[in-house]
Design goal:
Layout: H1 5-20, H2 26-31, E1 53-66, E2 76-86, H3 100-107, E3 119-121, E4 130-136, H4 147-155, E5 159-163, E6 171-172, E7 178-179, H5 183-186, H6 189-207, E8 216-226, H7 228-239, E9 245-249, E10 254-255, E11 277-278, E12 288-292, H8 303-308, E13 316-321, H9 332-339, H10 347-353, H11 359-378, E14 396-398
Parallel strand pairs: 1-3, 4-5, 4-8, 8-9, 9-12, 12-13
Antiparallel strand pairs: 1-2, 2-5, 6-7, 10-11, 13-14
């Protein structure tokens, strides 16, 4: 999808502004010295699988690699990873969506910290070898914004690791520090792909190593991501023969160069302006899913995928979701709908970033097609959903 950095910045700001408008009676209450009641926070969409979900938060340190975005003083690359998996029991309290500190750093408001999830922290994993999926978020977005997708896949029997790419978004570490998004990362898109590929391969090394207790099947590994996280998913599969299949959710295969005036908290766009760095590379013969919006062949928005498509020589599908926006493939749409604040976003930004689909409908479509893709290629259980148009999901067009 071709979006400028400034547009995504505006969308992020719109979400923060919307959350600050959650209590319309706040001014009246303040005048009366009565604190307004906090809005009721929604739960993440209900997972579609039958397994309870456990979760662990990992702080991983790659001592063999310096952090490329923070060279002074030099230090090792640190990552935070949320791992979800089928749990042995459904008993136990559920994890928060995020801490108030991280929620404020990411969204400009602590309200998303009250969102409900379906994950039981540190629950015992259910026995049995499980396929492993790595998830990579968009630039400027946290791993928490892939919660609905991660929980759904875990409920279906996958071990799912959502990775924060430090200094490309705000990241909270166990010692309480928040590492911010840094300007250098937003201006060096080719290095973003290099760094993310190294991040994901390091996480893969750790999760397939001994004594993880997660029952990962090393022969069944996939990777998916949103926006430049989707680009990174394809790149990482190209770099690592252990990965069987990759799904790209509305990510371009070209990244732009940006001027020093760009905000350090913005997400880089995915257009095809001068200075772009081609990412498809040589032919790739492993399964690829491209799921996006406004990416139809022969259109201005689809030129980038047109260029990359011939390089995928294995099983492949290219699907377009009518009515989706660029952010429809992660959590923000169901969050703004759940809080009832979509109308506070400027209409042009709402159309571009959120589309006309409800957040729950967008999540339903994304989860169905991503699960069908990985079920087919990691579990050898073909789903007719990927064989042609479905009356259950009329929004989805088979573009190629």
């Amino acid at each position: 999808m071709s979006n400028s950095l400034s547009r995504r910045a505006a969308a992020s700001f719109a979400l923060s502004l919307s959350l600050s408008l959650l209590a319309p009676q706040s001014q009246i209450a303040a005048a009366e010295s009565v604190a307004p009641a906090p809005p009721i926070a929604p739960d993440a969409p209900t997972p579609t699988g039958h397994r309870p979900i456990g979760g662990r938060t990992l702080h991983l340190v790659d001592s063999g690699r310096h952090d490329p975005w923070h060279p002074q003083p030099p230090g090792p690359r640190e990552l935070m990873v949320s791992v979800r998996y089928p749990a042995l029991s459904a008993r136990g309290p559920k994890a928060p969506y995020a801490s108030e500190t991280l929620s404020t750093a990411l969204f400009g408001d602590p309200a998303p910290a009250r969102l409900g999830t379906h994950t039981i922290p540190d629950a015992w994993p259910a026995p049995g070898a499980r396929p492993l999926l790595l998830l990579s978020p968009g630039f400027g977005a946290s791993r928490v914004t892939l919660t609905a997708l991660a929980e759904d896949l875990a409920s279906r029997g996958y071990v799912v690791a959502a990775v924060d790419h430090t200094h490309e978004t705000a990241v909270e570490f166990p010692d309480g520090r928040i590492e911010p998004c840094l300007p250098g990362a937003s201006r060096d898109c080719p290095s973003i792909l290099d760094t993310r590929s190294a991040d994901l391969r390091f996480v893969l090394d750790r999760l397939t190593g001994p004594d993880t207790g997660l029952f990962v099947d090393r022969a069944r590994i996939g990777v998916a991501g949103h926006s430049i996280g989707g680009t990174s998913a394809i790149r990482t599969m190209r770099d690592d023969p252990r990965i069987t299949a990759a799904a790209n959710l509305d990510g371009s295969f070209h990244t732009e160069s940006y001027s020093d005036s760009d905000s350090d908290t913005d997400a880089p766009g995915t257009g095809t302006s001068p200075g772009r760095a081609p990412a498809p590379g040589p032919e790739l013969d492993r399964p690829v899913l491209l799921l996006g919006t406004r990416q139809l062949p022969g259109t201005e928005g689809g030129i980038d995928w047109d260029h990359a498509w011939p390089g995928f020589t294995g099983w492949k599908r290219r699907l377009n979701v009518t009515g989706a926006g660029h952010l429809s493939f992660e959590d923000k749409p169901w969050i703004i709908d759940g809080f009832g604040v979509r109308d506070h976003i400027p209409p042009d930004e709402a159309a571009l970033q959120y589309g006309t689909l409800t957040g729950v409908r967008a999540a339903t479509i994304t989860r169905a097609y991503v699960a069908a893709f990985f079920d087919r290629h990691l579990r050898a259980t073909p789903d007719p959903l990927l064989d042609g148009p479905s009356p259950i999901y009329p929004e989805v067009t088979f573009a190629a």
